[in-house]
Each structure stands twice: as C-alpha cells, then as structure tokens.
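User: Structure please.
Assistant: Input sequence and predicted structure:
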Amino acid sequence: MKPQIEIRRATVADIPGLVASSAALFAEDAGTRDDTIDVEWPLKHGAQRFGETIHDPNRLVLVAVADGDVIGHLAGALVEPSPIRPIRVATLLSMYLSVGHRAAVLARVWWSRSDRGRGNTAPKE
C-alpha cells in the first residue's frame, strides 16, 4: 500500500525535515550547476532561516509528509507593489520532492486529472 502524502503548512516541528529537504535540493540542483554555491548552507543556516520564514506573513512554506516524515517542501514569497511592478506578486523560491517519491506523486497527479481519475471510463466526445 502506498503511503498517504499530506501537503500542509510547515510548523516548527518540521524544521529538521525542511533543512534536510533544502539540503537535498542544494546537493541535487544548485550544487551540480553552480560551483560557487555553498551546498552546506542549508545545514549551517537552514534551521534559523526556516524558523524565521514559517512565521513571516509574506511567506508560504509547505511540507509534503509521508509516514510522518517530510519528503519535500515548497517555499514562496509575496512581494508588495513597487514603482517597477505596481501589483502584488507571488514568487516561487524553492521546491523539492525526494527522489523516491517523485514517480508515485506524478502518477497520482496524472491520474487525478485524467478522465478515469474523475470516475469516467469512456473518453469524452
């Protein structure tokens, strides 16, 4: 049986999992593309940064949790209007899902958006 995956706002209790998820993102993405990036940054500073971020009303930090473990995260920020951009904008800051859960999550997303996932068995005409 596949574990249920819960997506929810991060809490203080999730900080160790957020740090691990962020460290995995740095190692997999930035660390392989930019040799000037300190891939140890999440391990050195992530706990403090996430501790501040999860309480910031202009930030959104979500965690994906399976079997009680953080398996991924999404972080975003709201930016207030400015002279150069006169509207409020949401910006994706980071997103990661552990390698071992990617195929299962993508399959569920595809299924939920397919006709069969909505309970239909025949193609629409």
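Residues 15-33 form the longest helix (19 residues).
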